[in-house]
Amino acid sequence: MLMDKKGRIFGKISIIDICALLVIIGLFLGAYYKVFMLDSKHLTAKYYDTIEYEVLLKDKQSIEGIEIKTKVYDVKTNSYMGKIIDKKVMHATSLVTKADGAMVIAEKPERYDILLTISVPGIETTYGFLANGNIDLNMESFRVLKTQTAIVEAKIVNVRNVSRQ
Questions:
Q1: Nearest residue to 142 via CA among 153, 150, 158, 131
Q2: Rounded to an integer, what distance in angstroms lies between the CA atom of residue 6 and that of residue 136?
Q3: Which of 6, 55, 63, 142 is most buried by its number of CB atoms within 10 A?
Q4: Which of 24, 1, 27, 25 lies closest to 12, judged by CA?
Q5: Rounded to 5 degrees, what angle do the CA atoms 145, 136, 161 make?
Q6: Which of 67, 72, 120, 71 is nearest to 89 (CA)?
């Protein structure tokens, strides 16, 4: 029989002993990862690099409220996401089907796509970039950003470490 009346497996090992052993092994592995696997030199702000990332704001009616030198924050966490250092405005386009069935790219009147370059202190890890050491900046991901005058959904299209270039 696998378990006896006293709750021991094979009559020798208690289930509580096994759980305690698993907790101790988990703590040991966590401590090992923290001490030996993490790059501890990047855990303090003096080692932050300058990270620049580009975000695309699609199909906006207005280009007002988003200016160079404006500070940007994450809507969910209110964390600082950097300062806008460049702004490029393009006419918004979309794929349109003509009457004959042909598909063409056409400009949308009074609509704009805005490409913003934002600079933030952060770190580059083996897994990507972290703004302020704790906010993931992944290409092709979406973030809801805010300034004092606007809240926008932005797609991150490029991320680079400018300190090491």
A1: 153
A2: 50
A3: 55
A4: 1
A5: 100
A6: 67
Strand partners, 60: 112
d(Cα 94, Cα 16) in Å, to the nearest integer?
63
Q: How many CA atoms lie within 13 A of 27 on its CB side?
A: 6
Least confident of 35-49, 82-96, 110-124, 149-163: 35-49
Residue 124 pairs with which residues in a beta bridge?
A: 129
Average pLDDT of the residues in 51-61? 88
3-state secondary structure the chain: CCECCCCEECCCEEHHHHHHHHHHHHHHHHHHHHHHHCCHHHHCHHHCEEEEEEEEEEEECCCCCCCCCCEEEECCCCCEEEEEEEEEEEEEEEEEECCCCCEEEEEEEEEEEEEEEEEEEEEEECCEEEECCCEEECCCCEEEEECCCCEEEEEEEEEEECCCC
Query: Which residues on adjacent β-strands are paired with residue 140?
Result: none
pTM assigned to the model = 0.67
